[in-house]
Design goal:
- The complex is a heterodimer.
- Chain A is α+β, with helices and mostly antiparallel strands.
- Chain A folds into three domains: 3-129, Sulfite Reductase Hemoprotein, domain 2 (Alpha-Beta Complex); 158-191 and 199-296, Sulfite Reductase Hemoprotein, domain 1, CATH 3.30.413; 392-534, Sulfite Reductase Hemoprotein, domain 1 (2-Layer Sandwich).
- Chain A is 32% helix and 19% strand.
- Chain A is built from 17 helices and 20 strands.
- In chain A, helix 2 (12-18) crosses helix 3 (20-27) and helix 9 (244-256) crosses helix 10 (270-290).
- Chain A is globular.
- The N and C termini of chain A lie far apart (55 Å).
- Chain B is α/β, with parallel strands linked by helices.
- In chain B, helix 6 runs antiparallel to helix 7 (127-147).
- The longest helix of chain B is centred in the middle third of the chain and has 21 residues, at 127-147.
- A six-stranded mixed beta sheet of chain B has the order 3-2-1-4-6-5.
- Chain B has a single domain (15-209), classed as HUPs (Rossmann fold), CATH 3.40.50.620.
- Chain B is globular and about 45 Å long.
- In chain B, helix 4 links the parallel strand 1 and strand 2 (74-77).
- The chains are: A alpha+beta, B alpha/beta.
- Chains A and B meet through helix 3, helix 5, helix 14, strand 18 and strand 19 of A and helix 1, helix 2, helix 7 and helix 9 of B.
C-alpha cells in the first residue's frame, strides 16, 4: 500500500479503488436500480449483471439458493406492527408468487422466497398498495427500525413511542441522503421497561428513560454481532423525545460522513467508529454535528435477563388484552398469514412480530380471549409451546440462504423435539440461537446456547462432508450482557442434540440457587464444559 | 455415544476460533498483503500453504510469500484437463522459486466411474454433469489438500464478484472443517496485482496474452473479447447455470459447494418443507 494510504489520507478515489461496493454505488446508486427493472426483466435473469442484483438489496431482495432466478424478499415492518390488511397483503403475495413460504425474522420483518424476477414489479406494486415497503430492507441503509412489540398497549410501557418510531422510519426510508451509508445500519427505539428490543446489539438504541415525567431517551451506540461482536456503549446522554429524530440523524451523519469507515467493509459499521473513538469522543462528535451539547444521562439498568412478551396480558386500554404466541422456527406460511389476518380482523386487532420470531395479537376484547387462543392454536400456534419453541430461534439457512454451511431451522426442530421429550417443561425458556454462518442473523453470540454451522474435519463413510456446529456459551443480554465464546467446537450434527442435552442436564442438576444458565457456564472452565458435553454424568463443584 | 467424547475433544491443531478470527480480521484489515502473509507464515509455518491456480493473483501471493520464506508451501490441483500452458507455468514456478508444487490429483476411481458413465465430455451435457465434473476433478482434491492444513492462503479479491465484496483477510473456512483462510489480496485491484507482478518479474500464465481473463480446465475456458464479461470465458454454452458458478473459481469461496449441494442433493436440505 502506498505511504499516503497508511498515513491516513483518505480520498473518495482511494475508497472507490479499495472498496468494490463503494465503486458500485458510485456508478449507480442502489435506489436507482428500480428504473432498470423492466430492462432487467426483458434481458432475463442470466443476462443481468451481478452488480444490479447487489443494488436490488436496496429493495429487500437477495438471491435464493441456488442462484437460478428466485429471490428472497424482506418486507419491512417498523416496530413489527401489522394491521390485518397488511398481513393479508403479505400472505397473498406468498400464496400467489412465493410458493406459500414465509418466515418471521429477528428484526421484526417478514421474509418471502421463490419470487421470480419477472413478477417483481407486480409484487412491489401490491406491497405499495397495501402500505408496505421493502425499500432499505437490505443493503447500505437504515434497516427496519425495531421496537418493543407491545408499544402503545403494554401497561408497563414508560411512554408512547410507536408514533416516533414511524416518524424516524419515514424520515430515513427512501431518503437518498441516507441510502448510501458505509454499511447497513440498525436502529431500535422503545420505552419498554424490560428493554426487550435488544438495545445491546444495535448500532443505535434509544432506550426509554423519562425524566420528571417528560418522555425522553438514553442512548446506546455501537453494538452489533456478525464476525466482530460488540455490545453497545452508553453514549451518556439524555434527550427529550421530540429531539429523537434530530439526534438519530446526527449520529448517522457523523458516521456516514467520516471517510475512514468507507475504506473497507470489514470495518465499516458504526460499532468500529464507536470502538475507535470511545463513547465520550464519539459523543463530542455528535454534539459538534448538532451544534449543541446534549444533556447528561445514563441508560437505565437492564433487567436481569432477556424478556419476551409471550402469554396473555391486560393492555393499558381497559377491557383489552394482548396475547404473545410462539412460532416454532419462525415459520409462518402464506395461508396461515391469511387466516390469522381474517381472525384478527374480527375484532380490529393487530399482529405484531417479535424479535424472537413470534407474534403478538393485540386489542383482544376480554370476552373473546379464550376463543382467540383456541383459534390460534388451531392455526398451529398453541400458547403452551411458548417455553422452548417460543424462546429458540434459527436463521433462514437451508434451503434458501447462499451463505449457510449447515442446516438451521430443520436442525433446531430436531434439537427442540429432543429436549422436549427429554426434559418436558423444564427446558421452557431455554434460548437456543442457531445460525448457519458467521453473519449471526439468529444471534448465536448471545443465546443461552448459541450454535453456528460448520463442517467436521472427518469425512463420512462415503467420503462425504459432515456438518457440525460450534457451540457458543456464556453469552446473553440483560444485566450481565456478554458476548459468548465458541467453547465446544465442531460437534457433529448427528450428536449436537445429545451434547446440548448433557449441558442442559448438568445445569439443571448442578446449578446453584437462582443461577441462570449463562452464570452457570461462566463459572466453569472450557475443559469442564467440553467434558460435560462429552459425557453422561460429571459432577460439578457447586 | 462414547465415540462423541473423542469427536469434541479440544483440538490439538492450531485452529482459530470464531471470536479470535473476527478480531484478527479487523486488526489485519489495513495490513499490506505482505504483512498478512508474514503474519500467517509466522503463526502457522508449514501448516499453512498457498492454493495456486497459477493465475495472476496466486502468482503474486507466491512471489510475496517466497520473499518472506523461500520454504513456503504451494499446492494446486491437476484436474487432468488443464491446458498445457498451466503445466508450463508450473515448471517455471518450480525452477524460479525452487519450491515443490504439491500437486493433488482427483481420485482415479471416481474419475473412472464418472467418465465411464457420462462420457469424457460430460461437462457439455448438462449443468448438473458439469458441476459433478468440477466436484470430482477439483473440489474433492482441494478438500483433500486442506485436510492436512491449519490455514490456506488464497488470491481472492473483493472486487472479483459481488458476493466477495465483504470477504475478510482472515476468515474461518467453515466449508472445510474450520481451518483458517487467509485472503491477503482482499482489497487489491487486478491492476495492482498486475503492477506487482510486472515490477517483480513474476512469471505470467501464457494464456493471458491470448485474451484469457480466467483460466481453468482447457475444455471449459476460452478467451474473451475486450470489454466482454469475464464470465463469458467459462462454460459459455450453459443455460440456467447458477449465478457465479461460472467465474473466478468460486470453489475458493465455498459458494460452489453450497450450489452443488442445493442442485445435486435438494432433498438433503428440504426436511424443512415438511415442517409447518
Amino acid at each position: 500500500m502506498p505511504a499516503a494510504e497508511s498515513q491516513g489520507e483518505i480520498t473518495w478515489d482511494l475508497i472507490r479503488k479499495r472498496n468494490f461496493v463503494e465503486r458500485l454505488k458510485h456508478e449507480k446508486g442502489g435506489l436507482e436500480v428500480i428504473r432498470d427493472l423492466p430492462a432487467m426483466i426483458e434481458a432475463g435473469y442470466e443476462a443481468v449483471p451481478e452488480e444490479d442484483f447487489v443494488r436490488m438489496q436496496w429493495y429487500g431482495l437477495y438471491h435464493d439458493k441456488p442462484k437460478l432466478g428466485y429471490f428472497m424478499m424482506r418486507v419491512k415492518i417498523p416496530g413489527g406492527v401489522l394491521s390485518p390488511a397488511k398481513l393479508r397483503t403479505i400472505g397473498g403475495i406468498s400464496q400467489r408468487f412465493g410458493r406459500g413460504h414465509g418466515e418471521l425474522t429477528t428484526r421484526q420483518n417478514i421474509q418471502l422466497h421463490w419470487l421470480e424476477l419477472a413478477r417483481l414489479p407486480e409484487i412491489l406494486s401490491i406491497l405499495a398498495g397495501g402500505g408496505l415497503s421493502t425499500t432499505g430492507a437490505c443493503g447500505d441503509n437504515v434497516r427496519n427500525i425495531t421496537g418493543c412489540p407491545v408499544a402503545g398497549i403494554d401497561r408497563e410501557e414508560l411512554f408512547e413511542v410507536q408514533g416516533l418510531l414511524e416518524e424516524a422510519s419515514d424520515f430515513f426510508v427512501r431518503n437518498r441522503e441516507y441510502s448510501d451509508l458505509p454499511r447497513k445500519h440498525k436502529i431500535t427505539i422503545a420505552a419498554c421497561p424490560h428493554q426487550c428490543n435488544a438495545p445491546e446489539i444495535h448500532c443505535i438504541a434509544l432506550v426509554g428513560a423519562p425524566r420528571d415525567g417528560e418522555p425522553g431517551f438514553a442512548v446506546r451506540v455501537g453494538g452489533g454481532l456478525a464476525s466482530w461482536p460488540r455490545l453497545a456503549d452508553d453514549l451518556g446522554v439524555w434527550l427529550p423525545a421530540e429531539e429523537a429524530v434530530e439526534v438519530l440523524r446526527a449520529i448517522v451523519d457523523v458516521w456516514r460522513e467520516d471517510l475512514k469507515y468507507r475504506l473497507s467493509r470489514a470495518k465499516a459499521r458504526l460499532k468500529f467508529m464507536v470502538h475507535d473513538l470511545g463513547p465520550e469522543a464519539f459523543r463530542a462528535r455528535v454534539e459538534e454535528r448538532l451544534g449543541r451539547r446534549l444533556a447528561d444521562g445514563a441508560v437505565p439498568p437492564a433487567p436481569e435477563e432477556e424478556h419476551d412478551h409471550t402469554g396473555i396480558h391486560p393492555q393499558k386500554q381497559d377491557g383489552l388484552f394482548y396475547a404473545g404466541f410462539p412460532v416454532h422456527l419462525g415459520l409462518m406460511n402464506g395461508e396461515t398469514m391469511l387466516r390469522l389476518a381474517d381472525l384478527a380482523e374480527t375484532w380490529n386487532g393487530e399482529i405484531r412480530i417479535t424479535r424472537r420470531q413470534n407474534f403478538i395479537l393485540a386489542h383482544i376484547p376480554e370476552e373473546r380471549a379464550d376463543e382467540v387462543v383456541r383459534k390460534v392454536e388451531e392455526l398451529g400456534f398453541p400458547l403452551r409451546d411458548a417455553g422452548l419453541r417460543g424462546a429458540s430461534i434459527a436463521c433462514t439457512g437451508d434451503p434458501f440462504c447462499n451463505y449457510t454451511v449447515a442446516e438451521t431451522k430443520g436442525k433446531l426442530h430436531e434439537i427442540v423435539e429432543h429436549l422436549e421429550r427429554t426434559f418436558g417443561g423444564a427446558a421452557a425458556g431455554l434460548r437456543l440461537n442457531l445460525d448457519g454462518c458467521p453473519h449471526a442473523c439468529a444471534h448465536h453470540w448471545i443465546g443461552d446456547i448459541g450454535l453456528q454451522g460448520t463442517t467436521l474435519r472427518e469425512r463420512g463413510p462415503a467420503g462425504e462432508r459432515l456438518h457440525g456446529y460450534d457451540l457458543f456459551l456464556r453469552g446473553g443480554l440483560g444485566r450481565e450482557a456478554a458476548i459468548g465464546r465458541p467453547v465446544l467446537k465442531r460437534v457433529p450434527g448427528t450428536e449436537v442434540h445429545l451434547v446440548i442435552e448433557r449441558l442442559f442436564r448438568a445445569y439443571l442438576e448442578e446449578r446453584r440457587e437462582d443461577e441462570r444458565i449463562q452464570q452457570f457456564f461462566s463459572r466453569l472452565g472450557d475443559e469442564e464444559l467440553v467434558a460435560l458435553g462429552s459425557r453422561e454424568a460429571v459432577s460439578v463443584q457447586a | 455415544m462414547l465415540e462423541s467424547a473423542t469427536a469434541i475433544q479440544i483440538e490439538q491443531r492450531d485452529l482459530l476460533d470464531e471470536f479470535e478470527a473476527g478480531q484478527l480480521a479487523v486488526e489485519l484489515d489495513s495490513g499490506t498483503p505482505q504483512e498478512v502473509i508474514a503474519w500467517a507464515l509466522e503463526r502457522w509455518g508449514s501448516q499453512a500453504a498457498i492454493c495456486s491456480s497459477f493465475q495472476a493473483e496466486s502468482m503474486a501471493i507466491l512471489d510475496m510469500a517466497w520473499r518472506i520464506d523461500p520454504k513456503v508451501r504451494v499446492f494446486t490441483v491437476d484436474t487432468g484437463r488443464l491446458p498445457q500452458e498451466t503445466y508450463d507455468v508450473m515448471e517455471e514456478v518450480r525452477r524460479r522459486y525452487g519450491v515443490e508444487v504439491e500437486v493433488h490429483f482427483p481420485d482415479a476411481r471416481q474419475v473412472e466411474t464418472m467418465v465411464r458413465r457420462f462420457g469424457p465430455n460430460l461437462f457439455q451435457k448438462s449443468v448438473e454433469a458439469r458441476l459433478l465434473c468440477c466436484n470430482v476433478r477439483k473440489v474433492e482434491p482441494i478438500r483433500g489438500a486442506l485436510e492436512g492444513l491449519d490455514a490456506w492462503i488464497t488470491g481472492l479479491r473483493r472486487d472479483q464478484w459481488a458476493s466477495r465484496a465483504n470477504i475478510r483477510k482472515i476468515e474461518i473456512d467453515h466449508d472445510h472443517g474450520g481451518l483458517a483462510k487467509i485472503n491477503p489480496l482482499a482489497d487489491w485491484t487486478l491492476e495492482e496485482v498486475k503492477e506487482y507482478n510486472a515490477a517483480h518479474g513474476v512469471p505470467e500464465h501464457p494464456l493471458y496474452a491470448k485474451g484469457f481473463t480466467s483460466i481453468g480446465c482447457a475444455p471449459c475456458t476460452r478467451a474473451t473479447q475486450p470489454g466482454e464479461d469475464p464470465r463469458a470465458g467459462r462454460w459459455w454454452w450453459e443455460k440456467n447455470a447458477p449465478k457465479e458458478c461460472g467465474i473466478h473459481c468460486p470453489i475458493e469461496t465455498g459458494a460452489f459447494e453450497h450450489e452443488l449441494d442445493a442442485l445435486l442433493h435438494p432433498q438433503a436440505s428440504s426436511s424443512l418443507r415438511t415442517v409447518r
